[in-house]
Amino acid sequence: MRPWCHIARAVAFVLLPHLLAAGSVHSAEKISATILVKDCLAAPHQQATIEVKLVAKGLLRDSPLGGEPVELIVNGATAATSMTGGDGRAFLSLVPAGKSIVPLQVRVGGSPRVAPAEGHAHLVVWERRTPVLVVELSSLMEDVRSEGPLSSIADPSPKPMAAAADELAKLSQFYYGILYVTAAPSGADGFATSAEARSWLAMHKFPSGLVLSLPPGEEAIGAKIDELHEAGWKSIKTGIGRSKPFVEAFLHRRLDAIMILDPSSGEAPRKAKVARDWKEVRKKL
Question: The pTM is what?
Answer without folding.
Answer: 0.84
